[in-house]
Amino acid sequence: MIMFKEYDALKKKLFRIMDDDGKIIVPKYFPEIDNEALLKAYHDMLFARTADLMTVSYQRQGRIFTYPPNYGQEAISGAVAQVIRHDDWLVPAFREMGAWLAKGASLKDIFLYFMGYEEGNSWPDAHHFLPIAVPISSQLQHAAGIGYAINYEQKDEVVFTFVGDGGTSEGDFHEALNFAAVWKAPVIFIVQNNQFAISVPFRAQTASDGIAIKAVAYGMPGIRVDGNDFFAMLAAVREAREYCRSGKGPVLIEAVTYRKGAHTTSDDPTKYRTKEEEESWDKKDPLERLKKYLLSKDLYQEDQEETLIGQFRQEIDRQFTEAENHPPYALEDVFKYMYAEMPDDLRRQQVEHEKFLKWKESIA
Amino acid sequence: MKVMNMVNAVNDALDIKLREDQSVVVYGEDVGVEGGVFRVTEGLQSKYGARRVFDSPLAESAIVGTAVGMAAADLRPVVEMQFCGFVYPAFNQIISHLARMRNRSRGRFPMPVVVRIPYGGGINALEHHSESMEALYAQIPGLKVVIPSTPGDAKGLLISAIESDDPVLFMEPKRIYRAIKQEVSEEKYSIPIGKAKILTPGKDVTVIAYGAMIREVQRALPRLKEAGISAELIDLRSIYPLDKETIAESVRKTGRMVFVAEEPTSFGVGAEIMAVATEEAFLYLEAPPKRVTAFDTIVPLPKGEHHYMVSPEKIFYEIQKTVKF
Question: What does the alpha-carbon distance between residue A116 and residue A110 come to, in Å, rounded to a whole number?
């Protein structure tokens, strides 16, 4: 755990391995990863970005409801995707698509959820993956509870959970970190500090010098990482998983990034930030940086990109069409998952509504 | 059989479930070493160890929130809220997650969680310790709300609650924690959630109550008998699911209904019970259904609490008015 020590949160240093031009500036922490895995990681991030951008356009076409874009934050989930194991838990917020896909969610499921079917959010193909959590920060407590259960059952698992910078102002953030630390629960808390909570900038969110430093008071390691640096994120998440598995308890990772898109498709960022600011972050784009690295090592050629994106688009469209052809939402699905055993009241309400529907049909 | 009060009976139910099911864990504020401020969990930590019965940090939201996570990971947590007035920080977890997780995950993550809440007034307590806010929970889709009125019921209902795959808010009337003692079987037994119990059959008026108010109604019964009024006393036992059938059947028989509770009068469980009487027994009613409940005010501090709490005299007064209507 040398890296956690060197980048101890109290030192307020930003952990970077690669600069904005894709050059390795801190080689000693460069994470071991073979070329094939590295290329796959890049492809996966590019896939997630393509899917994300296409989802926004589906929304603009009126084919999907409100959606929170990931654009600009792909390296964080991309790194988690490399480290998270089949039995590890993912307790999501709502802006970490790459991690969802890595955990076994299909794009079709993601589309179904944002089209308005709970079914998508149940992640039928994934294992140890809680539904997306819309109320801010409250999911962190579930992560702490799962962490307790992992210790209780002496399992070799870790919980990965996400929250945004705004979420760290919630009381639940404090409570979850506190419980997890007291219980030495194996939880990796990842704060995606993307500079904005909808419209409220980070400096209006907290007077703290960053988020990572908050870990110190809870008695856990905290590290401030360049969230747009895939290698730094990979090294940090790997070390965090090892730390958790060594029985020492949770870790807090502050991933410093920038939400290039809107908060959700209902949001208009031009109201609260400038073009200049957006452009300054464009230079730190996580995919561009990793691509520069790959190009410099001759692992990738620029002309491959268009072909790749073309293939991705076809696959994404195929899954979207599948989701669009999902059977209609049956009335019984409103009722049947509420309780293990359906109370008479619910049964009666369903039957009465069915009678009404029959009547409606009869007069049509 | 063994003579138990409600504290002993709840402890016994926890003991039985901890013994037979490794997935049961019990935690909350002071529940471990101290055995809870009401001593409900006394002795359980020394018997089952601090991994299974433990003191959590002091935060109600995280107590319920972590229980949601534990349940997702196949444990069966039984958590304690120290007093009813301290539950509110946990509302987001109760409403947004505990009650919804099963439905929003299409049944993948059932929530076998019991939240124990000592509630109710009449014990000269500090502020925020005396409320009776069961209606708040009963309106939340996805929860079950259970309130026992005797030690024997508390044991059987709590065992059912722990074995339920749905989240149960188990509200314990702390006024009668130690006031009622009865013979309780030491064996394991369960009482189904969602079934009311007719405690005293009668023909003139249906009296519906639960929790600590059962005893108050029972105190009014001899005087009612003297006045020639035959009251049928029903103990709801479950607020949700509500046993509408038992209520409706009784009201159809007696034609009159009085609801007794220590909750505030308006928008409460009483309103729901009156709806059942009117929806299910409209043509049988010979008097308007009546609520004998607390005021729509803040619970006064102890010196003023006698104004607020429903008494046997008030119950008698309102029942005979309804019968004479």
Answer: 10
Average pLDDT estimate for A136-145: 97
Asked if residues A243 and A251 have their Cβ atoms less than 8 Å apart, the reply is: yes
Q: Is the pTM of this model over 0.95?
A: yes
- DSSP code at position A130: P
Residue B166 forms contact with A (CB below 8 Å): yes
Which residues in chain B touch residue A249, judged by CB atoms under 8 angstroms apart? none
Residues A151 and A181 sit within 8 Å (Cβ to Cβ): no
CATH of domain B2-184: 3.40.50.970
In sequence order, the 6+-apart residues with CB closer than 8 A to the CB of B313 are: B220
Does the annotation count B129 as an active-site position? yes
**Confidence class for position A323, pLDDT limits 50, 70, 90:** very high
Query: CA B314 → CA A50, B222, B289, distances in Å?
Result: 70, 14, 16
Burial A63-89 (b: 16+ CB within 10 A, else e): ebeebbbbbbbbbbbbbbbbbbeeebb
> B102 contacts in A (CB within 8 Å)?
337-340
Query: ipTM of this model?
Result: 0.96
Are both B2-184 and B197-324 of the same fold?
yes
B197-324: CATH number: 3.40.50.920
Write out pLDDT tens, residues B227-260.
Answer: 999 999 999 999 999 999 999 999 999 999 999 9
Distance CA A149, CA B109 (A): 15
User: Residue A251: enclosing H or E segment and its boundaries?
Assistant: strand A251-256
pLDDT, one tens digit per residue, over B78-97 is 999 999 999 999 999 999 99
Domain spans in chain B, listed from the N-terminal domain onward: 2-184, 197-324
Residue type, B44: L
Contact residues, B window 53-72, toward A, CB-based 8 Å cutoff: 56-57, 59, 61-62, 64-72
Supply B54's token pair. Answer: 């433990």
Measured torsion, CA atoms of residues B280, B283, B285, B288, in degrees rounded to the nearest 10? 80
